[in-house]
Write a structure and sequence with these properties.
mainly alpha
């Protein structure tokens, strides 16, 4: 009888741990997006002037295609 309640408590604990780790992953993802954008911006500044337009064009096209495809 005690094992039954222990297994229910373990299941609830596992669900809570899953929810906490999911929230942590989402927060990490949201906080890493500005860092990635700043990193790409810093890299583009070091490129020669004639390459900046092409690099920004390719990055823009890639972002637009990802939005249109919705990650599929």
């Amino acid at each position: 009888m005690f094992n039954f309640f222990q297994s229910i408590a373990d299941t609830i604990g596992m669900i809570i741990d899953y929810a906490i780790s999911l929230i942590q992953m989402v927060l990490f993802f949201i906080t890493s997006i500005p860092k990635a954008v700043a990193y790409i911006g810093a890299i583009v500044l070091y490129l020669p002037v004639f390459l900046r337009a092409f690099v920004l064009l390719f990055i823009s096209i890639a972002v637009i295609l990802q939005i249109m495809n919705k990650g599929e």
